Amino acid sequence: MEIWINPACSKCRSAISLLDAEGADYTVRRYLEDVPGEDEIRAVLERLGLEPWDITRTQEAEAKELGLKDWARDAGSRERWIHALAGHPRLIQRPIITADDGTAVVARTDEAVQEALARGKS
């Protein structure tokens, strides 16, 4: 499995600690440095079963500068959102764990991390 993190984020550090405590085999991706492209974001959204606005940190300064709160949240606007996430990775909700079974979770709680771990063992 892979976990997308920002090391400055307490939820990311908590998720890593839990993965370590469980002895999980995972790869860390510092997504602010190793920025996912639009195709990767589309693939993760598919694995999550979410839309781009569902994983967007709308309270970030960059989101306010872009005026994201006023953007439409519909199929016609999906690519615009994906482009914004690829261009401004700080807007991507974190951490995201991609499980070995092809799914993914936004792992902001211990329960979500446990869910990813369970999927990795199935």
C-alpha-based Rg, rounded = 14 Å
> What percent of the residues sit in helical stretches (DSSP H or I)?
40-55%
Class based on secondary structure composition and strand pairing: alpha+beta
Major sheet strand order: 2-1-3-4
**Extended strand count:** 4
**How would you describe the shape?**
globular
- First-to-last CA distance: 13 Å
Strand fraction band? 5-15%
Query: Stretches where pLDDT falls below 50 for ≥5 residues?
Result: none
Alpha plus pi helix count: 5
Instruction: Report the major sheet.
Output: 4 strands, mixed
Key traits:
122 residues, 4-stranded mixed β-sheet, 5 helices, 4 strands
Description of the structure:
The chain has 122 residues and is an alpha+beta fold. Helices cover 42% and strands 11% of the residues. Strand 3 (96-98) and strand 4 form a beta hairpin. The longest helix is centred in the N-terminal third of the chain and has 12 residues, at 10-21. It is globular, with a radius of gyration of 14 Å. The mean pLDDT is 95.
